[in-house]
Amino acid sequence: MEFAAIFALSLLIGALVVLVAVAVGRQKGELSEQNEQKKDTSAPVEENAAQASSKKQKHQQRPRKEKPQQHTFTHKLLASSLKNHSGNVTCLDFSSNGKYLASCSDDRTIRIWSTKDFLDRDHKCLRANVEFDHATLVRFSPDSRAFITWLANGETIHIYKMIKKDDGTFSFKAASEDFPQKHKGVAINIGIAETGKFIMSASVDTTIVIWDLKGEVLATINTNQMTNSHAAVSPCGRFVASCGFTPDVKVWEVCFAKSGEFKEVARAFDLKGHSAGVYSFDFSNDSRRMVTVSKDGTWKLWDTDVEYKKKQDPYLLRTMPCQVSEGSRIALSPDGRVVAISNGCDLAVYSASTGELEEEFHGVHSKEITNLKFDINNRFLVSSGDRAIRVFHNVTGYRAAIQDMQTMLKKASNDGVRQRLQQQITDAQNALDTVLNATKN
Question: Where is the signal peptide (predicted)?
């Protein structure tokens, strides 16, 4: 009986051992299958993870900046394009001796170009760097040995001296101190009087500041125009003018005593006749003529050689329709014979004596034209609007000069005068023929 009990217990224990062994074996099999499945599924997961890591690395790499393509423009009267700036050109100015063109850009440089190279294939220039800022405006000094700039971030005037080196080139030395900040709005223009007696700065906030050359404020003018759109110093160095929201141009005389001391800024005269705000204006080189362009879609030519101290008003000589847009600029050639007007990216050239449209240039720049200037010798018209400076032959000026001299020749009664005029006509015609032949080729 006792043996039977022991035998039964042994069988029970054996059965339990077998069951445990079977269960353990089955569990190992299931774990092995799961591991195989994990291996099969982990391969694409690891591959996806590797691809994601590669994409992340590519994304973290700095993208290569593609240099924007230069805007292309061609025309038979285009003398050259000056393309050394890497940023948009905002302002241009010719030196009073006619030898140099200054340009400033948001690439933090000011470049000085030689006008005698305008017709060459290569256009070399000298570069002045603007430290930690960029210039939006630039103007030559009367002696062409320095220039002033308006700093965009500093919101002030900065002076550079041009130091001539032995090889004929220049180095540039910046003044140690800037003018104090006086304007509350964006600057629209700066200028230096040809007399060298004062500097002008103007902003959109209706104020014009008259400075001495050391940065001391001589006077502040309130233009009372809500906003200023343009302001400038006359080429004779006596006047300061501004235009803006109102349909007129206001002109002041900056007065000095015989001893050279500043006296006052006195109202001289107004140009009245437009029916809407005036966008821009310009003087002839002798300050006896002015032109204005307005939102009303017209440009006007004025005779400003008047006795304003006796309350004599300027004479309106001509009113002509034109295409305009917000920010249109106008330029009058130094001899007063040609008018150029911008309309967005386009440019139109008129005869001042007849008012007729002589030339049209479309798509001159990829952006709105920011500045227009004639050179002092009436040979070229330059414009800015993007990274390039366009230089045009002033063919209209040559033709107008020839016509004026032919009219004078008919009226001349002195043999010496007739000979001189005939020689001038011949020289002007030869210069015009040279330009026209060059454009054909």
Answer: 1-25
* Claim to verify: residue 323 and residue 434 sit in the same structural domain: no
Residues 242 and 287 in one domain: yes
Q: Can you read off the two tokens belonging to residue 435?
A: 């330009």
- Predicted confidence (pLDDT) per residue in 305-343, tens digit: 999 999 999 999 999 999 999 999 999 999 999 999 999
The pTM assigned to this predicted structure is 0.82
What is the tens place of the pLDDT at every residue in 176-192? 889 999 998 899 999 99
pLDDT score, position 16: 58
155 and 254 co-located in one domain = yes
* 437, pLDDT greater than 90: no
